[in-house]
Automatic annotation (TrEMBL):
<dbReference type="InterPro" id="IPR016188">
    <property type="entry name" value="PurM-like_N"/>
</dbReference>
<dbReference type="Pfam" id="PF00586">
    <property type="entry name" value="AIRS"/>
</dbReference>
<dbReference type="GO" id="GO:0051604">
    <property type="term" value="P:protein maturation"/>
</dbReference>
<dbReference type="InterPro" id="IPR036921">
    <property type="entry name" value="PurM-like_N_sf"/>
</dbReference>
<dbReference type="InterPro" id="IPR010918">
    <property type="entry name" value="PurM-like_C_dom"/>
</dbReference>
<feature type="compositionally biased region" description="Low complexity">
    <location>
        <begin position="1"/>
        <end position="19"/>
    </location>
</feature>
<comment type="similarity">
    <text>Belongs to the HypE family.</text>
</comment>
<dbReference type="InterPro" id="IPR036676">
    <property type="entry name" value="PurM-like_C_sf"/>
</dbReference>
<dbReference type="Pfam" id="PF02769">
    <property type="entry name" value="AIRS_C"/>
</dbReference>
<feature type="domain" description="PurM-like N-terminal">
    <location>
        <begin position="76"/>
        <end position="187"/>
    </location>
</feature>
<dbReference type="InterPro" id="IPR011854">
    <property type="entry name" value="HypE"/>
</dbReference>
<feature type="domain" description="PurM-like C-terminal">
    <location>
        <begin position="200"/>
        <end position="350"/>
    </location>
</feature>
<feature type="region of interest" description="Disordered">
    <location>
        <begin position="1"/>
        <end position="22"/>
    </location>
</feature>
<protein>
    <submittedName>
        <fullName>Hydrogenase expression/formation protein HypE</fullName>
    </submittedName>
</protein>
Length: 374
């Protein structure tokens, strides 16, 4: 586990509501490096959690095995050229437990997840595939409900499920229904969105309240109640929201959807890929009261909790106010907020400025706080 020491910094300057904060330098002098990762001879749940173990698996096993420059970008989707057109191409698998949860189910989660991965490249998603892996004995009525949810979510997102597959495994060798979705979309001319484009001075924006999906699924799974029914997954297609942003400016540097590992993992990936530091302001993080209460009770950090209908945008400071206004004008971005900035100091490291005037390191999670949430 990493050791951190709080270093005091000047009080953050006051800024107009909704405005972009001025840059503030933090002092990392007292920090210590995290302990090295342990070796794992077998797969553990954390390898699928979107944290350091997932990154290690990609870096040391899959990337060397596949060895090609298209994969090397390691974005939410790959950018490929075919017949002169730039396409985004993505695939994802869904093993969420339970299959149905407040605000959605595995069906709409799968469609929205792949649509959003394509949108994070600035693409206009067009076609999806959908593969069902079914466990022997699962009720056909359940499979039908999931299939209906897939169809409805695809229609809502404006995409076509063009092909698919079904496989059945023996009873006891699955968990009812697993889904895999892949998708392709067209990237407009003049759009270049990738984590390597973040530079010092850029502003970090999140499109709405964080932590809802992970806590909603956990609450149902464990039979807990927080917020008197206020908790529901934020699962939603974000391609319309991205189109609204690009309608304001094509100069969006980075887009990511903070799913497994939450906002913390996403920002660490951006910082590492771009070689910049990131400074967050804790008091500006849009954490719903029900999520804050649940995290306080369970000992979780909302920054590490999964989201399924939010995006993190890194944009030039000169474009930040216009992008923020475009986000807030869209139904899926009404709670958008500026949460920090990219800096030249402490490259590759994310820190949070606390309400007490200090800073803390926001590390890449080792594994996964909440397994099987997507």
């Amino acid at each position: 586990m990493a050791e951190t020491t709080t270093a005091t910094t000047p009080e953050a300057p006051d800024v107009p509501e909704g405005g972009v904060p001025e840059r503030e330098v933090v002092d990392p002098a007292a920090w210590t490096c995290p302990a090295p990762l342990r070796d794992h001879p077998t797969v553990v749940l954390g390898h699928g959690g979107g944290g350091a173990l997932s990154a290690e698996l990609m870096e040391h096993l899959f990337v060397p095995a596949y060895g090609n420059p298209t994969l090397a970008g390691l974005g939410d989707s790959a950018t490929v050229t075919l017949g002169g057109a730039r396409l985004a191409f993505s695939t994802d698998s869904y093993v969420v437990r339970p299959l149905f949860f407040p605000g959605g189910c595995i069906g709409d989660l799968a469609v929205n997840g792949t649509v959003n991965d394509l949108a994070m490249s600035g693409a206009q998603p067009a076609y999806l595939s959908c593969g069902f892996i079914l466990e022997e004995g699962v009720e056909l009525s359940v499979v039908g409900q999931v299939a209906q949810a897939v169809g409805a979510a695809a229609e809502a997102a404006g995409v076509t499920v063009a092909t698919g597959d079904t496989k059945v495994v023996e009873a006891g060798h699955g968990d009812g229904v697993y889904l895999n979705t892949s998708g392709i979309g067209l990237i407009p001319d003049g759009v270049d969105i990738r984590p390597q484009r973040a530079v010092p001075g850029d502003v970090v924006i999140v499109s709405g309240p964080i932590g809802l999906h992970g806590i909603a699924v956990l609450s149902l799974r464990e039979g807990l109640e927080f917020g008197a029914g206020e908790l529901a997954s934020d699962t939603a297609p974000l391609n319309g929201l991205v189109a609204a942003m690009l309608g304001v400016t094509r100069d969006v540097h980075v887009l990511r959807d903070p799913t497994r590992g939450g906002v913390a993992a996403t920002l660490n990936e951006i910082a590492s890929a771009s070689g910049t530091g990131v400074v967050l302001t804790e008091r500006d993080l849009p954490v719903p009261e029900a999520v804050a209460n649940a995290c306080g009770f369970l000992g979780l950090d909302p920054l590490y909790v999964a989201n399924e209908g939010r995006l993190v945008a890194v944009v030039p400071r000169a474009e930040a106010d216009a992008v923020l206004a475009a986000l807030r004008a869209h139904p899926h971005g009404r709670g958008a907020a500026v949460i920090g900035e990219c800096v030249a100091e402490h490259p590759g490291t994310v820190v949070a400025r606390t309400a007490f005037g200090g800073t803390r390191v926001v590390d890449l999670p080792l594994g996964e706080q909440l397994p099987r949430i997507c």
